[in-house]
Amino acid sequence: MNPYTTLTLKPRRDESLRRLHPWVFSGAVARADGEAQEGDIVRVADAEGNFIGIGHCQTGSIAVRILTFEDEIIDEHFWRKKLEKACWLRLNIGLISATNTTFRLVYGEGDNLPGLVVDVYGETAVIQAHTVGMHLIRQMLAQLIMKIVPHIKNVFYKSENTLPGKAPVEREEGYLAGNHNNKFTTLENGLLFQVDWLHGQKTGFFIDQRENRSLLEHYAHGKHVLNMFAYTGGFSVYAMRGGAKSVHSVDSSAKAIELTDINIEQNFPQDVRHKSFTEDAFKYLKNTENKYDLIVLDPPAFAKHRDAISNALRGYQRLNRNAFEKIAVGGLLFTFSCSQAVTKEQFRLAVMSAAVEAGRNVRILHLMSQPADHPINIFHPEGEYLKGLVLYVE
Q1: What is the C-alpha separation between 248 and 260, in angstroms, rounded?
Q2: What is the per-residue DSSP string for 114-131?
């Protein structure tokens, strides 16, 4: 007999789960046959008592994140199998190589491991737990990761800002295994980047833009490039390798600009084509007299929940309008939204409205998304968060 507390759903509240969507919403739960604490493993059944799945219990609008739709025991062997499948996917698509040691090993629901993110930088894996259930098994996960990916020697835990706000757990950060310097230089497509997982955003680097940075490199030759919200200068470094005539990096964070300058210098020492500016993006676009041939707009999420969508869309419209006003005739605009709550259609409409306001004729050359190490579970479309456009501006 399965040892887990069973949550029974209300009638006709199992349709999405039968379609293998991995979330059970709190309003769908009728009763529990025992006490389940946040982070516990629970069994989910329909109104007639038929088994549906097993997952981590949590408080809030999502009551359970399903780990498996099989009636099985969740033990170390279970977690090892899941992590091995995630690793095999990255190996099978040729992502891990001597020139690319930077990749996402686990992407939550996309790897059927909801609540868990693992990024790899050379010999170090950085774990982020988004649920208490994953937090409670962090030490076991660290040991399994090092067994499954032998070149990983260090595992850093970084979940202070990702665990649920009212979760009754200690929010410590630090090494679960090994002890590496908190700053490390990693390789992405043959380029060197310094990653600061202790103080940096997310796990220290935005791996999800890797393929989009490569696309920009293809278009950068001979162009004057502006990289807004540069963070650690990823797009800037690729533009330099692509043969850009000049590259300007802008970010409001002095720490981010410091890392941008380090990344430029270690790839292109004493190269005068690059300049960096610590300034608010909107203010820079408004005040600059430069006309750029290629502009990158990769802002932080303007909408982290649905209540903020209207304000976010106005922000995207204003930002893109300012860029349209500063881009040269025949220029290229790489523009992104990483707001999961904003749909592709809403984002495209905001950009279209910006083009109308700026009086520019615009054509779409590329539709961009997240790379293959951020796979989208076809039963969980919410996993598709990154959306981007490459626009030709007349």
Answers
A1: 11
A2: TTEEEEEETTEEEEEESS
**Strand pairing of 116-121 and 191-196?**
unpaired
Q: What is the reported pLDDT for 304?
A: 66
Token pair recorded at residue 116: 């868990």
- Of 203, 202, 269, 206, which is closest to residue 233 (Cα–Cα)? 206
Confidence band, pLDDT 50/70/90 cuts, at residue 160: confident
Say what the pTM is: 0.94
Domain co-membership, 134 together with 256: no
Are 226 and 272 in the same domain? yes
pLDDT at 167 exceeding the cut of 80 = no
Could you tell me if 102 and 134 are in contact, meaning their C-beta atoms sit under 8 angstroms apart? no
- In terms of DSSP H, where are the helices of 327-379? 344-358
Q: What integer is the mean pLDDT of 4-10?
A: 96
Question: Of residues 17, 250, 285, 338, which has the active-site annotation?
Answer: 338
Residue 274 domain-assigned (yes or no): yes
Amino acid at 25: F
What domain range is 60 assigned to?
A: 5-68
pLDDT of residue 353: 97
Tell me the CA end-to-end span of the chain in Å, nearest whole number: 67
Full DSSP string of 274-332 = EEEEES-HHHHHHH----EEEEEE-PPPS-SSGGGHHHHHHHHHHHHHHHHHHEEEEEE
Cα–Cα distance measured from residue 391 to residue 383, given in angstroms and rounded to the nearest whole number: 25
Residue 57 appears among annotated catalytic residues: no
In a domain, 198, yes or no: no
Specify if 197 maps to a domain. Answer: no
Q: What radius of gyration, in Å, describes the C-alpha atoms of the chain? A: 22
**Residue 102, H or E segment:** strand 102-107
pLDDT band per the 50, 70, 90 thresholds, residue 67: very high
Beta bridge partners of 226: 248, 295
Nearest Cα residue to 273 out of 235, 231, 228, 222:
222
> How many independent structural domains does the chain possess?
3
Considering 155, 188, 221, which residue would you say is the last residue of a domain?
188
Does residue 367 contact residue 394 with C-beta atoms inside 8 Å?
Answer: no
